[in-house]
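SECTION: protein entry
WANTED: fold as C-alpha cells:
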Amino acid sequence: MKIGQGRPLNVNSDRYCDMLRNFLGPELQEFKGFNLRTWFQQDGATCHTSNQAMEAVNELFPNKVISHRGNINWPPRSPDLSPLDYFTWGYLKSKVYSNNPANLTQLKQNIRSEMAAISKAMCKRVIANLRSRLEECQRRKGHRLDNTIFSK
C-alpha cells in the first residue's frame, strides 16, 4: 500500500521497515552528510523495537542506534534531554506548516527544505542547550526540568 493516498495509516513493524528500507535508506544515500559516523535515534514504540524493525535499523546504522534494544539504550520519557523532542520536532512543525501545504508532495518538499535550512550554528546552540539541560538534570538528581527555562 502506498503512503499518502488520502487516508492516515497506522505504523506497524511492517510499515516501519518498509519506510526504513524504501524511503529513509535511499534518501540517506543521497544526503551528503550521511556517513559511518551517523547515529540513529528512535523512541521505544513497539513497532520501532520489534526484532524485524531492529534488524532494518541496524542494516542502515550498524552499531550506531540509540533506542530501546539499541547500542545505546535511550532513556525512557526523557524529552528534557532529547534535542529532537525539546527543539527539532516543534521547530520543524512551525516551519513546515507555515504555508499550509496543500498536498503530500508540498509537505515533503517543505520538510526537505526546512531540514536543509537548519544551520550549523543553530545545531551548535541546540547542543549547548543540551549541555545546560544535562547539568540541570544532574543538579536535580534526575528529576524533570518542567519549571526550567533555557535561553535560546
Summary: The mean pLDDT is 85. The longest helix spans residues 120-139.
